[in-house]
Amino acid sequence: MLEVVEKLKSEFEAKLAQSKTHEEIEAMRIAYLGKKGAVTDVLKDLKNMDAEAKKQVGQQINALKDEIEEKLRLQAKKMEEIKFQMAMENAEKFDFSIPSCQEVGSLHPVTIVQRQIENIFKSMGFIIEDGLEIQTEYNNFEAVNIPKHHPARDMQDTYYLSNGQLLKTHTSAAQNAIMRKYGAPKPGEPLRVLFPGRCFRNENIDASHENTFFQLEGMMIGDNISISNLIYFMKVLLSEVFERDVKVRLRPGFFPFVEPGFELDINCLICGGKGCPTCKQSGWLELLPCGMIHPNVLTMGGIDPDKYTGFAFGLGLTRLTMMKYGIKDIRVLNSGNLKALKQFK
Ligand code: DAH
Predict the structure, then answer these.
(1) pLDDT tens across 101-124, in order?
(2) What percent of the chain has pLDDT over 70?
(3) Distance between Cα 270 and ligand 1 center (Å)
(4) Hey, whose CA ends up nearest to atom 13 of ligand 1?
(5) In 3-state terms, what secondary structure has residue 248?
(6) Domain regions of the chain by residue span
(7) Is the pLDDT of residue 68 over 90?
(8) How confident is the model at residue 258 (pLDDT cuts 50, 70, 90)?
């Protein structure tokens, strides 16, 4: 019987040396190790042998079985390597020194302004957060103190989804999740977060209205945050964006999630405050709604309003971009018109 095993082995070696394809290897696996394979036959035969023969032949045939498995595996691997090498040799040779792309891309004007503001705030210790575009009614409304049937809901024509969720109508929708994520601030380390994002409202589209636009919201919460902090940060923000010192003024404004709430106006950059068509002769441009975060909003975010205060602002990023670059028609921004969009630096 031992000779049979020897013969199988040499026969296998010879065939293996001849094999060139994966199909041939597979055929050999079946011929030797398959249910009716030559090695399997010997294994089945073991039970008819006497103890001594069983031991000897058993050892040999099992060793051969392992050897065949391993050699077939190695042969398949070797074939893959050869195939890969041949493919590489046949592949077209690229000349990387030839310039292929003559035109360099450009950033969207909203992205340019967004990054500029992010950099200013990052340098003042702010974290940048990314709010979801699909939100629950709770996050978009209830958590920012706009309960069901509140008239403020009608001011924001909302796109509802069939599952009851909605497309966020303002970046304020992320306030609650951010407060819960970071929790109450440590003494002397106010929570400072900036969260830009795309917002959606069911508006009729014209030169100054879009159903998709960008806002950029910010929040600072700590044990000693006041309106002066708010004014300081807003002034820094606007002076950096417009690259000059801007005059600002605060007027009372109502937003359910802040108390007190303000409209922050800047001195008209076109006429310097004398009055012109852009500022409707008032000398001021309404730009930045903001306020001190309402105690209800802090409470819903898990932050104790008796210990902490904070400010929030919701900048119309699309509007600011239009002002900065003198873009007269908002529709250009979502148009994908590269000729128009590429001119901004
Ligand atoms: N969420 C408001 C809106 O879209 C804008 C806003 C106003 C945000 C005042 C604020 C704020 O954080 O304090 O109309």
Answers:
(1) 777 789 999 999 999 999 999 999
(2) 99
(3) 25
(4) 290
(5) strand
(6) 2-90, 109-341
(7) yes
(8) very high
Enumerate residues 6+ apart whose C-beta is below 8 A from 191.
179, 182, 185, 219, 220, 221, 222, 310
Report CA(31)–ligand 1 centroid distance (Å): 76
pLDDT digits over 216-235, tens only? 999 999 999 999 999 999 98
| Residue of 231, 257, 264 to test ligand 1 pocket, by largest number of atoms within 8 Å of CB | 257
Task: Give the CA count within 13 Å in the CB-facing half-sphere of 300.
Answer: 21
Rounded to an integer, what distance in angstroms lies between the CA atom of residue 255 and that of residue 298? 15
Within 46-159, residue ranges assigned H as helices are: 51-90, 109-122, 137-140, 152-155
Mean pLDDT of all residues belonging to the chain: 91
Q: Look at the block and give the residue holding tokens 């852009």.
A: 278
Topology of the domain comprising 109-341: BirA Bifunctional Protein; domain 2 (3.30.930)
Residues with CB under 6 A from ligand 1: 170, 172, 217, 255, 258, 289-291, 312-314
Q: Which of 176, 227, 288, 313 to mutate to test the pocket of ligand 1 (most atoms within 8 A of CB)?
A: 313
Across 127-131, 154-158, 300-304, 325-329, least confident range:
154-158
310 bridge partner residues = 221
Distances (CA, A) of 51 to 39, 42, 44, 46: 19, 15, 15, 9
